[in-house]
Design a protein that fits this description.
The protein has 91 residues and is mainly α. Helix content is 60%, strand content 0%. It has one domain (2-86). Helix 2 crosses helix 3 (37-55) and helix 2 packs across helix 4.
C-alpha cells in the first residue's frame, strides 16, 4: 500500500499524511480517524517496521524526510526489492 501510493504523495506533506494513514487503513479506520492509544501503538509498530526495512534501525529521521532523501526509485526498491523504470517513478 505504501509503495503504490508513493508517487502521488511525493511531498513532505503528502508522505506525512500517507505514513500516518496506512496504519489507520490497516486497522479498518478511515484515513482521517482521530488518534487513539491503540492507533498510536499501531502507528509506532508500523514506523519501526519501516525504519528496519529502510535503514536497519528502530528509529531514524522523520520518515517523509528519509524517503525524500533516498529518492523515489530507491524507496520503491527498498519497499519491494524490485527496480523500477524511470517512467514509473515520475510524480
Amino acid at each position: 500500500m505504501l509503495n503504490s501510493r508513493l508517487n502521488s504523495s511525493w511531498t513532505v506533506d503528502g508522505l506525512t499524511q500517507l505514513v500516518y494513514a496506512i496504519p489507520k487503513i490497516l486497522c479498518g479506520l478511515p484515513e482521517d480517524a482521530a488518534a487513539t492509544a491503540e492507533l498510536k501503538r499501531a502507528q509506532r509498530a508500523f514506523f519501526v517496521s519501516l525504519y528496519n526495512l529502510l535503514c536497519s534501525s528502530d528509529t531514524g529521521p522523520r520518515l517523509p524526510t528519509l524517503l525524500l532523501s533516498i529518492g523515489l526509485a530507491r524507496s520503491h526498491y527498498l519497499l519491494t526489492g524490485k527496480a523500477t523504470s524511470p517512467a514509473e517513478t515520475t510524480s
